[in-house]
Amino acid sequence: MTRTAVVAAGGTGGHLFPAQALAEVLKSRGWRVVLATDERGALYADKFPADERLALSAATARKGDIVGMIRAALLVAKGVLQAQAAFRRLDPAIVVGFGGYPSLPALLAALGQKRPTIIHEQNAVLGRVNRYLAPKASALACAFPTLEKATPGMKAAAHVIGNPVRPEIRALVGQGYDPPKAPRGPIRLLITGGSQGARLLSELTPEAIRALPERLRSRLEVQQQTRPESMDSARRTYADCLVKAEVAPFFRDMAGCLQAAHLVIGRAGASTVCELAAVGRPAILVPLKVAADDHQRFNARLLEAAGAAAVALEDELTVESLAGALKALLDDPERLSRMAAAAAGAAMPDAAEKLADLVEELSRF
């Protein structure tokens, strides 16, 4: 009999990409996979291998916003009822949650029906929804050996398996790193912005590149992911300083971009950090200051401690400081190679397989 797993994930790439990686492995093992998310999640789920999708009502609210909190509670309650009805029809063997408020109704419904549940935390800080549900779940899995905001008991019981990465990223594990060749070889620089707080990197990074010495600018080949409203400005800046650049709001072949890159500048979301490790690429990471519980700073520090990344905090980031950090790295290909090797050494490339093993161990069929 084909077993069914419900995978519940919040509506961002950071939650959905690892959920997709798990789904790919489960499908290869003969499972039927159902994706539970909200409308926002559909934007990132075009390649998600789901046999069925559940659109569950959910919402969140700022602390102190009484009206918003009441509205969110009513929507979550509606989502729980929707999930319970769907689960009676689907009879899932297990429900796996990847965090974010859209995962809450599915997990609450599963717990109410006494179905096995697994929670996976992608960040180095246990998120609010996962923090609430972890004591009730059958198992807690996590990406990093550090798990801030978790109780000692949660930390002791957690399965440290890594963060599942998309199959196209997983395929690049072990392919190595070829540093830029001085003095005239091309230097390929990849700049990603993240879905939140993207204005800072979109606008500051081209100016920092303009401030580099001409001997470095002439070798640069830039791929920059930027906000649509910042694209024209970035293109003008690169044209003015004679830097070859491709500027777009989204790169569909992110695996190809990472494979080609000599250095990456980006935020420090869990997927970004773990994909950099999987591919083995050096980075300058700029943690999003307003990220919940400052989790991006904790993510970034793990690669920094391994020697794989330089970290620039938003409050300290200027055109001059970023240009200086870029110059120091681009002038030192041996250091870039050491950072790449350190990144690869921090990777846990079999995370999706390990999480699938845990799913099969705990499922009720």
* CATH C-level category of the largest domain: Alpha Beta
Q: The CATH topology of the largest domain is what?
A: Rossmann fold
Identify low-pLDDT runs: none
How are strands sequenced across the largest beta sheet? 3-2-1-4-5-6-7
Judged by helices, strands and strand pairing, the structural class is alpha/beta
CATH superfamily of the largest domain: Glycogen Phosphorylase B
**Overall morphology:** elongated
* CATH level-two architecture of the largest domain: 3-Layer(aba) Sandwich
Total E-strand runs = 13
Describe, in plain words, how this protein is organized in 3D.
The chain is an alpha/beta fold. It has helices at residues 13-28, 66-90, 104-112, 128-133, 152-157, 167-170, 199-210, 214-217, 231-240, 254-260, 270-279, 295-306, 319-330, 333-345, 351-362, and strands at 4-8, 32-37, 52-55, 94-97, 117-121, 139-142, 159-160, 187-191, 220-225, 244-248, 263-266, 283-285, 309-311. Strand 6, helix 5 (152-157) and strand 7 form a beta-alpha-beta unit. It is 43% helix and 15% strand. The strands form two sheets. It has a seven-stranded parallel β-sheet with strand order 3-2-1-4-5-6-7, sandwiched between helices. Strands 10-9-8-11-12-13 form a six-stranded parallel β-sheet, with helices on both faces. The mean pLDDT is 92. The protein has two domains: 4-165 and 349-362, Glycogen Phosphorylase B (Rossmann fold, 3-Layer(aba) Sandwich), CATH 3.40.50; 187-345, 3-Layer(aba) Sandwich (Rossmann fold), CATH 3.40.50. Helix 7 (199-210) packs parallel to helix 9 (231-240) and helix 7 (199-210) crosses helix 13. The relative contact order is 0.13.
